[in-house]
TrEMBL record:
It comes from the Bacteria. SUPFAM superfamilies: Acyl-CoA N-acyltransferases (Nat). Signal peptide: none annotated. GO terms for molecular function: acyltransferase activity, transferring groups other than amino-acyl groups. It comes from Ureibacillus sinduriensis BLB-1 = JCM 15800. This is GNAT family acetyltransferase.
Length: 142
């Protein structure tokens, strides 16, 4: 079941985001992700429209959108590679006609995931904070 984010979900979402970021972004210092935790909690999640995917045992993952920009898609490490990411992405694809996102070039599993789900690389950029190369990817439902 997918439902709208509730304030009581915040600590769980930040934990999923942090652990997922450490796993997916081994090429960035762990201290960087730790330094971003408070901003996730106070700024980024509150400014986005966030939905969570539930299982009987609790929150499996979440997706955060700012208009047509996919700001975050994170699945609890224990639930990855079981279709949860696709389920959340399809949820937003049914609500939007176009979705943009940025993904680190070195995060090859995420790049493959998005390509498999119809996204195409539009541009190669450099993340200002981490100085890492990233792709701007776009999905269009038209």
């Amino acid at each position: 079941m997918i439902r709208a984010f509730e304030e009581t979900d915040m600590d769980t979402l930040v934990d999923i985001w942090y652990k997922g970021s450490l796993q997916a972004h081994h090429f960035i210092e762990a201290d960087y992700w730790k330094s971003q935790m408070e901003d996730m909690k106070q700024k980024y999640i509150p400014m986005s429209e966030t939905h969570v995917l539930m299982s009987p045992s609790g929150i499996v993952g979440f997706i955060s959108m700012v208009d047509n920009y996919l700001a975050a898609l994170f699945i609890d490490v224990a639930h990855q590679n079981k279709g949860a990411g696709k389920e959340l992405l399809d949820f937003e694809k049914n609500r939007k006609s176009e979705i943009h996102l940025k993904v680190y070039k070195e995060n090859s599993s995420a790049v493959r995931f998005y390509e498999k789900n119809g996204f195409v690389v539009k541009e190669e950029l450099t993340d200002e904070q981490t100085k890492q190369p990233e792709y701007l990817m776009v999905w269009s439902g038209n």
